[in-house]
Design goal:
By secondary structure, the chain is of the alpha/beta class. 35% of the residues lie in helices and 22% in strands. The protein has a 5-stranded mixed β-barrel. A hairpin with a 5-residue loop joins strand 4 and strand 5. Helix 1 packs antiparallel against helix 3. The chain is elongated, with a radius of gyration of 31 Å.
């Protein structure tokens, strides 16, 4: 009854089904791992934001030192004077609502007592008259300031953020202490600070960046379950198609037999 399964068409169909099963299983685990990474990231951010701020120089005091993953988003304090001469903006960044494209304003902060210099992302400003025009930026506070910020690692080029040369003066696509060290020749401490508060408070400043979202776990677990359900459906679907084919063949055979018996001898 099922000898047709040995035909070329059905053997190819079976081979495709057998190849799809491990592929969909792996896709399910890929989504599961993305879910686990998202949950771990959310927990890291939640713990970092809940901890009391600590002095920046107790965590990073070495030029070029990469920010460890477990210290990312850690609230830190720093005291020093801004260096507006080496201030720059970072292109193609959105405001807190995610609706408007503009720039991040990044100003080096010379730490008190010769503790080195760290980049500070002071916030977002709207675009200027054109992509080549330097935007209007509120001046960094003069004199000594004490600020609190979230510790972030240097940005690296990704699919959504690409680094390229030939940009207008003092405009970049990345916040990178290594890149700015090469530009200015002055060694910078690794990573940067994402400003949250300044003392004394300035009269005018860029739009501060909101806390990162650490409650949304995304759809990855649902996608994983969908892939595994699809995995289970592959053999079921193959069995349903084979059974339907067998019934159709049996029906055709019965109709042919009836027709043959109706033919006069």
């Amino acid at each position: 009854m099922y000898r047709f399964l040995l035909s070329r068409r059905w053997l190819i169909t079976l081979l495709i089904a057998l190849l799809m099963i491990p592929a969909t299983i792996r896709l399910g685990f890929w989504q599961l791992h993305r879910h686990e990474a998202r949950v771990a990231r959310n927990e890291l951010i939640a713990h970092a934001l809940a901890d009391r701020p600590v002095p920046f120089d107790t965590l990073s005091a070495t030029p070029g030192l990469a920010v460890p993953k477990d210290l990312t988003w850690r609230a830190v304090t720093a005291t020093g004077q801004y260096d507006p001469e080496h201030e720059f903006v970072v292109r193609k960044r959105t405001d807190s609502g995610g609706d408007k494209i503009g720039y991040f304003v990044v100003t080096p902060l010379r730490l008190a007592d010769g503790g080195g210099t760290v980049l500070v992302n002071r916030g977002w400003v709207p675009s200027g008259d054109s992509a080549t025009t330097y935007p209007q930026v509120p001046a960094a506070p003069a004199g000594e300031v004490t600020l609190t910020g979230r510790l972030r690692p240097d940005e690296a080029a990704t699919g959504s953020i690409r680094d390229r040369a030939g940009l207008p003066d003092r405009q970049f696509n990345l916040i990178s202490s290594d890149q700015q060290t090469k530009e200015s020749g002055a060694p910078l401490l690794g990573g940067y600070l994402e400003l949250t508060t300044t003392t004394p408070a300035p009269a005018d400043q860029p739009e501060l960046l909101p806390e990162p979202n650490h409650s949304d776990i995304g759809p990855h677990m649902a996608y994983a379950i969908q892939w595994w359900l699809f995995t289970a459906m592959i053999p079921v679907g193959f069995w349903v198609m084979a059974r339907r084919e067998a019934k159709d063949r049996a029906k055709e055979a019965a109709e042919a037999e009836v027709a043959l018996e109706a033919v006069p001898a």
